[in-house]
Structures are given as C-alpha cells and as structure tokens.
Sequence to fold (232 residues):
Amino acid sequence: MLLYIKQLVIAFFLLTLGGAALAASVLPENPDVCEPFMDGRVDESLLSGMLSAAEDGHLYRIQPGSSQVGFCVNSALKRIEGNFTEFKGGITLGNGEANNGQTLVLIRTDSLDTQGALVRSLLKGESFFDVEKYPDVLFVSNSFEWTGADTAIMKGDLTLRGITRPILFEVTLTPAKTGIITVKATATINRADFGMDKLDSIVNGEVQLCLSVEALKFERISAANTAGDGNS
Fold:
C-alpha cells in the first residue's frame, strides 16, 4: 500500500502548473484534460503519456476547489500573501515501479487574489506578474526523491514571465481516502530571476511558493455506460 501511495505522489510531481498534434478525440468525454497544455510549450510525448494513462485509468486530476496554490513575500510594510484561484493539472501513474509518470501544472496569473485592491493591482502590473503579457505560469517536474517516510524533494522547471528556471520543492505527503492524494509543497525563488526586480528597497527578493494540492482519480465514462438502461 505504501509503495502504491509513493507511486501516486511520484507521478503527481513528475507530471504543475502546456503538442497540438495530439487528437482531442482521444478523450471525447473530457477534452479539457490536456487541452490547457496543447499549445506547443510542453513536449508532445508528455501529453501522449497523459492521454494513454487516461485510457488505462491511471490519470489523476488536480481539484481546484479543494486545492490551494499561492505565495508569500515580506515587504517593508507587511507580509504579502497571494493565492491563485484558477489552475489546472494532471497526474499520470506509471505501470510498475520503474515508470514514474509525469506531472504538469498551469496557473492563470490573472486569477491572483490578495489583500487590498492596491496591492493586487501592483502585483498584477508590469513590475511583477504582468498578467496581460504573461497570462500563465507553467510548472513541469523532472525528478522526485524520497527523504523520509512521508517527505521528499521534487525538482522541475518553472516558467514565469516567459523565463524558465529550475526549482526545488520540499514535499510532505498526507495520505487521503481511496482515489485521492493530497500533497503539500513549498519552494523559495528569487523574483529577480524571473524579471521581477522592481521595488527592491520595499519588497523582499525571496518569495515562498506554497501548494496544498488534492488530486482525484480520473474516471473515463465509456460509451456503454452512457447508452442508458434501454439495452438491458
């Protein structure tokens, strides 16, 4: 059971946060499973693996309603905390211990919510997230290493304001009910690495990213199940 849970978590962090050649008809009942990533920013083979996992019943989807994706940063006036309300992602589960799967997360920057209209407007503006020019934040993981019974280090690439940098998350697993995994992860980035180098004298350069994500197993509805009871 522990091995199964670890496979779920590894798959999740090797999927946060972009192969237009993939046919949308592969998942006709749920075309939005991979649609946010089908713009060429993510390697086509990763999306192909997600679609194949969905066909085999090994795809887990992030549940925005029960998940939180946010950040916090210190300023001269107060600690600023922000949360994004719109994000999508998926988890593929590999077949066997050697196949760790892949994880993708896409965040809509315009969904940023924080304390006060003035702070929110500043963070969405050109000096920081510049949401009009850069509407998305993309995370693609590439490795996952257990450091304890329920802790791990996850590495990947974060694309913010059109700039891609490596990132490292410290992860804690909270086992959940059957068909659901819950993972909390934190990472620290330097905002200047992503072109957000304004107001250095007021806003701290280090930003902490905080995620608490719940992912639900994707159940594909077959044509037989949607035909109704008339065939009985």
Remarks:
- The helical segments are 2-13, 44-55, 117-124.
- Residues 2-13 form the longest helix (12 residues).
- Confidence is low (pLDDT under 50) at residues 1-31, 94-99, 222-227.
- The radius of gyration is 19 Å.
